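Case study B.
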Amino acid sequence: MCLFQCIMNYFPEEVLEHVFDFLTSHRDRNAVSLVCKSWYNVERCSRKKVFIGNCYAVNPELVIARFPRFQSLTLKGKPHFADFNLVPHDWGGYVQPWIEALAKNGISLEELRLKRMVVSDESLELLSKSFPNFKSLTLVSCEGFSTDGLAAIASNCRYLRELDLQENEVDDRKGHWLSCFPDSCTSLVSLNFACLKGEVNAAALERLIARCRNLKSLRLNHAVPLETLQKILVQAPQLNDLGTGSFVNDPYSESYFKLKAVLQKCTSVKSLSGFLDVNPRCLPSIYPICTNLTSLNLSYAPGIQSNDLIKLIVRCKKLERLWILDTIGDKGLEVVAATCKELQELRVFPSDLHGVGNAAVTEEGLVAISAGCPKLNSILYFCQQMTNAALITVAKNCPNFIRFRLCTLNPVIPDAVTNQPLDDGFGAIVQSCKGLKRLSVSGLLTDQVFLYIGMYAEQLEMLSIAFAGDSDKGMLYVLNGCKKLKKLEIRDSPFGNMALLSDVGKYETMRSLWMSSCEVTYGACKTLAEKMPRLNVEVINENEEMEGRPKDKHRVEKMYLYRTLVGARKDAPPFVWTL
Amino acid sequence: MVDCKLDFEETELRLGLPGEKSININANYGKRGYSETVDLKLNLSSKKEIGLDKSHDLNENNLDKVKICSNDSVKPPAKAQVVGWPPVRSFRKNIMAVQKSGSNSEEIAVGGSAGAAFVKVSVDGAPYLRKVDLKMYKTYNELSDALGKMFSSFTMSKCDSQGILDFMNESKLMDLLNGSDYVPTYEDKDGDWMLVGDVPWEMFVESCKRLRIMKGTEAIGLG
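Model:
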């Protein structure tokens, strides 16, 4: 026994556990469990929050066996590209077996966070009835449920604190789910139903808000009219985070005057979103809130023109997070750069999704932001055009990027000035931003950009590639170079079998690999699956006319592979072949 | 400037449905094994087809690709897109589609009707215009009722407002045309001013860009 072990054995387990309590990140806890058996055991019995990045990498029984006392579960299902309609419906990602297993094994679940999973009303009902201490439900980009499921949650979860629905596809049965919160429910801290399409009973909503004195976060859907918002705000001036519903009213009406008055009292609102329906002439009513805002999301409001956006932003000097549409224009971004010196995260979404034409933002806006906002570390930028020179300047100005996602509306557009590929620009980004963890590239790109990425992006964990590269070399540079790569997703790029099979062991160090419309063949996928039993290699077949399996030399349209402890999944639909 | 010998049409980047008169599209789809009903894609595979030999020096390769892409200034047809590009969640796309159609009455969403079809309505003699969402109604009568309510607040003589309420009533149409009462007209996609009521309702909603309720005396020549 080494000295270290002697010393560590001197500490009773309770002390170790107490020390581990300070470790909240699952990565830290994972690291700690590797130290020795005794630490592994103490850690696993005390872990409260479990994070599972791919629901098919393990099964519920294994999780429960290792962490018998967890109370919070985060699960992610479908691959990221499912967000963009590249994964067929019914691919999988069902939460039902998880909820059943947790219920059966007496886990006292308090929090459930799901992303890109299929959640049925049955699941929600089982959830609401199986865990008496259940407190928090967060669903992001999920589908498969209706407002009936929400009614079950509202009715049965007596201590519910948080119901957070973000961008889900919900079948709105126009029932009265919100009215199902019993009068005894006073525990809500956070309620977000912005993604629902149907109406809720305004009176029930007002009463609910009035009795939940701890409510800090409220995001309404567009069916909630301005008058109701005004009444709610009178009851809940303590809100930190507000998502408006419809923001349409006659600016000369009495209800608008009342709204302006109550908004002046909402001094704790730090985060503002919504405006799913907006009359720009009503915007001045939120000016008083602007001074305190740290987070502003106007990305669902194409109706607000650049001028009105600028008038708002110029008052938001404390902004740390801004999500807007490209209607803001380069000029508007210059105002952001001049005003928002605390800005850390910027997302500029496209307002014109069908390419018919109004110029959006260009490289100029991005350069302005990089020059004006020294704390910027995360960006998602949809733009009309880009240049290497701009990217090089951005890289110099902002060496602190953790997330850099650039999306040119034309996926293969070259440098707007020189007509060259954008390799050097992205090369500058990865070279300068030593802490870069997530990167999405677009525009005209050759293998060269991947050489740069492999060489410099040492901390990179997630890389998204579309319509880029010339040959297998590109993918090889990435696989060989990026030691910390966890997720690689590639579409419409000429990477093939040689790249796929060159280092099969690499995939066990990663969470997943997605390749669609590339050059890999069925035979190569089979070979990979044979060599690596701890990977699931799934081929998604969308050719309905095909009978039997493709020949080895046929290209595979969509392949998704991921490491797993539990072999091929049993819930795969007929069009998904696990090789 | 290098004189590129590649044929312009060969290298042109185009979007199009399979079967359209586009270079190589059928060949590409054949090679890629697409079924006919599958998604439209940017014809980028053409960049591989045009013999981009790796032994060419880098500049020439770039120029080939650049030639392909510089035609990007030719905007693709509004309805053809690459699946999943730009990478925006469906939820966000749906919200934008519904809201955008509020500002113009053209169809926007791919493969189906957008959420609303707002058109301007002007009535001769009224102080300002209004907007209606044609998708809210299923028949001419419903539209007529709605417009009647909308404009009934104007100070008009009794027979005038009655005239508006009746204007879609077919049996009264001829009376209206001959009298000084109101006649409903609309501007269609081609820019022509047409009499309301001739075509089936759905066709009307598709093609109507704006409505004008004219005084009957001005409408002579339309009927």
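The longest strand of chain A covers residues 378-383. The remaining cases will be described in the next quarterly update.
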